[in-house]
């Protein structure tokens, strides 16, 4: 097993929400690490192809001689290795299962529907995609009410697994709001999430890795130009 | 107080089989409640309001959804008997990675094979590649979990009950391309916990023939 002192590197891109998860988790644990930026549009580096031969995707966590792939698996690995630092996952099994459930929902359903807003052809398709995203946000607003136990985060007093899993998408959510002209997080439907989003983005573990909305919006326009309708899929 | 463990089930679902297999491996007594998937009842809708799908595990009145999340929950609650995940964080991350790989590939590719549309040939090729990759990962170990059944075995074994259906509908042999993987299947089936939890592949094929339309086969 790699010792806690072994070198830690994250292979990724500044714009990927999935890469952000790994960096936030390391920041929570105060683990010094090197961020190796891939320029995916210029072709994948040999390091990436060697460390993630199956999927060839970022993020990859390199810890000593170990490589770990898939963002949520990386977050769980970080939580387990640096176990004396603040916990990321809840300790109770049912709460852990609930956090994992919502993280899977975000990855399998919610984020794809948000990406679909940008790619939708025709007003009907766009409205349908927006509707799905808004429905998901209402569910998450309810879940926040249940699991935050009065604290500012899904994890309670501190950022936890679901905060990381969801919060990493806030940059792209803001870009989507800007480009669509719709406030997806708002005081009417999602007052708690609105407050949570602000708290999450201001947190010390997050603020230096969350990209600025303007920069992300420019990036979105650039890649849309290169690959019609695509938002980065990492 | 005795644990109350209920599984909302559908016998042919590989996802539900994962849950039953995990419980069976750990020797946990549970009540199986088969669900009508074409006419979903209030129990299922209440237990899984977001996805309205089986399997659901209801443990002392609290529901857990999504098959691999349920299996992890089972492993964490009944932690002292037949552990499914390794205790070392790196080994765990590898097991989780391969279970995730299975999750992303096998069901969709298998479905594209048995639905038998224009993309069947491509799906067959990709399915074989996927199974070969898993066979390489298995290597010389008796099980993916090492000396005993582990998380990755539980993730993949249920899909092997559908192999006969994939082969018949796609007219190919998985044994030919992946003999070591088939040897692993046979080794697992020798275990009581596995044969208790998994139906015979021919029963799955009969189900497929009966319900072709409902399964999306045109």
Task: Please explain how this structure is put together.
- Chain A is of the alpha+beta class.
- Chain A has helices at residues 17-28, 46-51, 71-81, 93-119, 123-147, 161-167, 170-180, 191-202, 204-207, 213-226; strands spanning 8-12, 34-37, 60-63, 66-69.
- A four-stranded mixed beta sheet of chain A has the order 2-1-3-4, covered by helices on one side.
- The radius of gyration of chain A is 18 Å and the shape is globular.
- The mean pLDDT of chain A is 92.
- The longest helix of chain B has 27 residues, at 89-115.
- Chain B is of the alpha+beta class.
- In chain B, helix 1 packs parallel to helix 3 (67-77), helix 1 (14-25) crosses helix 6 and helix 7 packs across helix 11 (201-210).
- Chain B has helices at 14-25, 42-47, 67-77, 89-115, 120-138, 151-160, 163-170, 174-177, 179-189, 192-197, 201-210; strands at 5-9, 31-34, 56-59, 62-65.
- In chain B, 57% of the residues lie in helices and 8% in strands.
- Chain B contains eleven helices and four strands.
- In chain B, strand 3 and strand 4 form a beta hairpin.
Largest sheet of chain B: 4 strands, mixed
Radius of gyration of chain B (Å)? 17 Å
Look at the structure and give the mean pLDDT of chain B: 96
> What is the straight-line distance between the termini of chain A?
28 Å
Helical residues, percent of chain B? 55-70%
What is the number of helical segments of chain B per DSSP (H or I, 4+ residues)?
A: 11
Percentage of residues in DSSP E strands of chain A: 5-15%
Order of helices and strands of chain A: EHEHEEHHHHHHHH
Strand order of the largest sheet of chain B: 2-1-3-4
Query: Which residues of chain A form runs of ≥5 with pLDDT under 50?
Result: none
Oligomer: heterodimer
Largest interface: A-B, 23 and 22 residues
Q: Going across the major beta sheet of chain A, what is the strand order?
A: 2-1-3-4
Helix content of chain A: 55-70%
The helix/strand class of chain B is: alpha+beta
Largest sheet of chain A: 4 strands, mixed
Function (chain B): Is involved in the conjugation of reduced glutathione to a wide number of exogenous and endogenous hydrophobic electrophiles.
Pfam families (chain B): GST_C_2, GST_N
Protein name (chain B): Glutathione S-transferase
Catalytic activity (chain B): RX + glutathione = an S-substituted glutathione + a halide anion + H(+)
